[in-house]
Amino acid sequence: SYVIDANGGWGNLFKTAEELKDSGVTIPVVQNWLGKFGALLSHQFIYEWFGIASFLFVLAFFIIGYRLLFKVKILSISKTLGYSFFFLLFISLTLGFAHGFWSESPHYVEGEFGYWSNKLLAAQIGAAGVAGLIAFAGLTILIIAYNIDFKFPERKEKEVYLDNETPDYVNEVREKFSQNKEVEEASAPIEFPVRDKAPISTERRQQNVVIQPNRYEGKEEEEEVIAPVTLSPLATNLPLSTAATVATSLPLTVEPTVQEEEKEPAFTIEKTEEEKKSEDLVEQFGNYDEKLDLAGYKYPTVDLLENYGTNKISVNAEELEANKNKIVETLNHYNIEIDKIKATIGPTVTLYEIIPAPGVRISKIKNLEDDIALSLAALGIRIIAPMPGKGTIGIEVPNQHPEMVPMRSILNTEKWTSNTMDLPIALGKTISNEVFIADLAKMPHLLVAGATGQGKSVGINSILVSLLFKKHPAQLKFVLVDPKKVELTLFNRIERHFLAKLPGEADAIITDTKKVVNTLNSLCIEMDQRYDLLKDAQVRNLKEYNDKFIKRKLNPNNGHRFLPFIVLVVDEFADLMMTAGKEVEAPIARLAQLARAIGIHLVLATQRPSVNIITGTIKANFPARLAFRVLSKIDPNERDKFFEDAARLIVMHQQGSTSLIQRKLKLGYNRAGRIIDQLEAAGIVGPFEGSKAREVLYPDEYSLEQFLNSMDDKS
Fold first, then answer.
1. Last residue of some domain: 627, 654, 682?
2. Boundary-marking domain end, from 564, 597, 627
3. What b/e readout covers 14-52, taking b as 16+ CB neighbours within 10 angstroms?
4. Could you report the per-residue pLDDT of 273-285, keeping only the tens digit for each?
5. Residue 486 maps to a domain
6. Looking at the 3D structure of the chain, how many domains does it have?
7. Cα(631)–Cα(452) distance, rounded to whole angstroms?
8. Would you place residue 703 in the very low, low, confident or very high pLDDT band (cuts 50, 70, 90)?
9. 591 secondary structure, DSSP code
10. CA distance 240 to 191
11. Are residues 412 and 392 in the same domain?
12. Which domain holds residue 98?
């Protein structure tokens, strides 16, 4: 209505009362169909902006809304917006240029944008330049929109028709379908409209459908690729079923079209002289066999190991029922309800998995570890809260009659004999009585901790025996360090085959702590030499290097050799740190950081994995830890004197934050952070959770005092 009424009553909206009175208008009159809002909106878009071209906004919003509402693709949103914006500017500028010949003021036809843009351009490039710019923009959008191709017409080739190739057969078909008179009158093939008007050549005529590659790659999916389709006049006027019958009865010969320009260039690999020599050596002598130096070596058999019987777990139903009742009764004393409980029997312990009732806190059950152990009359239990991936709480209770897990029963299993690990070690059986095997090469180093008499030495012996049963002497070497002089002396018998020692040393097993430093330094030298060999061979790890050497791609005259794995086993590492200190720490840290790729792996055993024994630099490179029982979690001498005060403060406020300890105890940030770490190690607060405060695992001060008293008793 703005255009129909010329100004839509716009002028009356800004007249004062006196002007309206003088002009004879008593009240403002708005003639726009949408009233004052419509007049304001239309004046803004049409007069002050783009003129009548503003109606393109309506078309664009309609297309976008229709597509979003009915999920029908008319045009893509990006194309709609792009074309609308271009034509908005183009139409406004064109109308402004045309209207400027007979008017010197803005008009709603072109809007102020078209009027002033035309004035600005005319002042810079003149009226002829504006006309040329408008014409150039119009031609550009036409070329882009209609995909106009400026090609010179190709030379017409002689057209070959299908009916000229087999005239007799086609005439028979025409006589059979004589009712189609239009077929006889047709003299040329029927072609669908295509953009390329050049006639189809002889080679392309032999194909029924030819699809040309799209010249505008990267456009959206709605741009269809128009393919030229040629049909014989015989099949155009036939019914669909009849045409299909004729088409299927015709003999079809498909000849592959040769397109030399699209063929990929031939790619050939020329082998170097060294590769040719290595292949000749492999054909002549075969792959290198590292076991030939000890061809008479025989792997040990399981008959050397003690047989402890069938190793079947005996289930005592009475013991299971009694333990279940005692666990449920103990939890009921503390108002903890259980929805479900089940037992998994293992060789030495039985795992009771409980599902607490909704609303029961896990920390409340975890704090009852000593009470449950007291009710079960057990030496000690372990509460796993929660069980990883199960949504239950586990309570491990030692069996009254534990079963022995013999090494022979593990090495006789199919899982052990069929494993393809580089350095497999058998560590025993899981709670579900399954054989547990780990790969030392992937760990890549192992830290073993446990008090005296808790099975630490047995674990080290199991690791060594596992490797001896699986690896050949040419594939593995041991470096054994035994400060106690009695734990590893049994392995003196394998000195000729598996033990590595320094030249001039009498004993292969090192017992003197002063000689350990020389051995560790020699391992560092070996590590550097191996890295030089890997660099020369252009490989990244020991496995790739040995594979290349076995295929005779590395020349032994250049220093290359088959590299076996080296496993360094240190028993009582704490004794070495107390006697040698920094002299031992530096090479151990270097080996832990760098020796993984070249096949040197460390196994360190100690009674106390404290900070002054296993430093942070060493511990950071030992991601795999084998934990036996230790007597105390935190040594009282290493506890901060504000440890108990901080624990009570955190439990009282139920907020495990370092800033709370800083404010209340007036400590610095570093000391408060160390206290928080000690509280986490003691199990009073949970792990670090980013910006959130740590979870407090004790609900009240009473349970905390019981825990602190038990820590003092144990220490």
1. 627
2. 627
3. eeeeeeeeeeeeeeeebbbeeeeebbbebbebbbebbbb
4. 666 666 666 676 6
5. yes
6. 4
7. 10
8. confident
9. H
10. 18
11. no
12. 2-146
